[in-house]
Amino acid sequence: MSDPKGCIMLYIELDSYTSYIAVSLILWFLHFFFSFYVPS
């Protein structure tokens, strides 16, 4: 019982979730970098 549309939707959800994590990590790293090397 494999639903192609369901699999595609699941893949899109996982892809967007992974992209969200990647963006969050990049933003966190930039925040840490600037706050550490450029103290205000």
Q: Major beta sheet, specifics?
A: none
Helix and strand string, N-terminal first? H
Shape, per Cα inertia axes: rod-shaped
Overall number of strands: 0
Strand content: under 5%
Q: What radius of gyration results from the CA coordinates?
A: 17 Å
Q: How many domains in all?
A: 1
The average pLDDT score comes to 82
Please describe what this structure looks like.
The chain has 40 residues and is an all-alpha fold. It has one domain (1-40). Helices cover 85% and strands 0% of the residues. The protein contains 1 helix and no strands. It has one helix spanning 4-37. It is rod-shaped.
Secondary-structure topology with pairs:
Elements: H1 4-37
Question: What's the gist of this structure?
Answer:
Keywords: Membrane, Transmembrane, Transmembrane helix. Helices cover 85% and strands 0% of the residues. By secondary structure, the protein is mostly helical.
What features would you highlight for this structure?
40 residues, transmembrane, 1 helix, mainly alpha
